[in-house]
Design goal:
The complex is a heterodimer of chains A (112) and B (121).
Chain A (H helix, E strand, L loop, with lengths): L8 E4 L5 E6 L12 E5 L6 E4 L13 E6 L2 E6 L8 E9 L5 E4 L3 E5 L1
Parallel strand pairs in A: 1-9
Antiparallel strand pairs in A: 2-6, 3-4, 3-7, 5-6, 7-8, 7-9
Chain B lengths: L2 E5 L3 E2 L5 E8 L8 E7 L6 E6 L5 E3 L7 E6 L4 E6 L8 E9 L6 E5 L3 E5 L2
Parallel strand pairs in B: 2-11
Antiparallel strand pairs in B: 1-3, 3-8, 4-5, 4-9, 5-6, 7-8, 9-10, 9-11
Classes of the chains: A mainly beta (112), B mainly beta (121).
Chain lengths: 112, 121
């Protein structure tokens, strides 16, 4: 059971918009700690997609965006493309766990 | 461009010790970044294991505390992980990564390719 809760799967057709939620609690996201998002393509290492809730590292398309409110955060992907099919993870910091960094359980995005 | 490369045995016997090294290039291990280990059991999600700062300050996952040691070798620009008393539950792909930013804001902005470690007799 992950400290951060994500839906196991989401899907969308090419060109559509999808969102992936990441729900935490008052000891992590709700405490104001940053949320970061990672994309893991099949058989590869994770890649940083969004840092500090809303920031896109250089090279990440602007189709990807992040937001945060209260105890939750969201990743939105617009103009869905086949190459977006991957596993997506949120990550934050939890003050209840001796200063641990925590990941969500991951969400599998399927492009129909 | 920062690059990280994990190395170590791919097979460890139950109750034995898992030891991995992460060689860093394109950045100094003495830079103001956290050097982090993450693992991923087959077919499962990511788990933060622990991290080290160049000063030697470490943070470990509470679930692994007591079995885990992370160290840094500045002369070789690398950091290492040692996990004792392993069981099948420790079978995973182990990733090393660079943590950008300090304290609670750290994100993992560069990752190694990962190395599969299997615990089996």
């Amino acid at each position: 059971q992950s400290v951060l809760t994500q839906p196991p799967s989401v899907s969308g057709a090419p060109g559509q918009r999808v969102t992936i939620s990441c729900t935490g609690s008052g000891s992590n996201i709700g405490a104001g700690y940053d949320v970061h998002w990672y994309q893991q393509l099949p058989g590869t290492a994770p890649k940083l997609l969004i840092s500090g809730n809303t920031n896109r590292p250089s090279g990440v398309p602007d189709r990807f965006s992040g937001s945060k409110s209260g105890t939750s955060a969201s990743l939105a992907i617009t103009g869905l493309q086949a190459e977006d099919e991957a596993e997506y993870y949120c990550q934050s910091y939890d003050s209840n766990l001796s200063g641990s960094r925590v990941f969500g359980g991951g969400t599998k995005l399927t492009v129909l | 461009q920062v690059q990280l490369q994990e190395s170590g045995p791919g097979l460890v016997k139950p109750s034995g010790t898992l030891s991995l090294t992460c060689a860093v290039s394109g950045d100094s291990i003495s830079s103001r970044n956290w050097w982090i280990w993450v693992r991923q059991p087959p077919g499962k999600g990511l788990e933060w294991i622990g991290e080290i700062f160049h000063s030697g300050t470490t943070n470990y996952s509470p679930s692994l505390f007591g079995r885990l040691t992370i160290s840094v070798d500045k002369s070789k620009n690398q950091f290492s992980l040692t996990l004792n008393s392993v069981t099948a539950a420790d079978t995973a792909v182990y990733y090393c990564a660079r943590g950008l930013g300090l304290g609670s804001t750290t994100c993992l902005n560069f990752w190694g390719q990962g190395t599969l470690v299997t615990v089996s007799s």
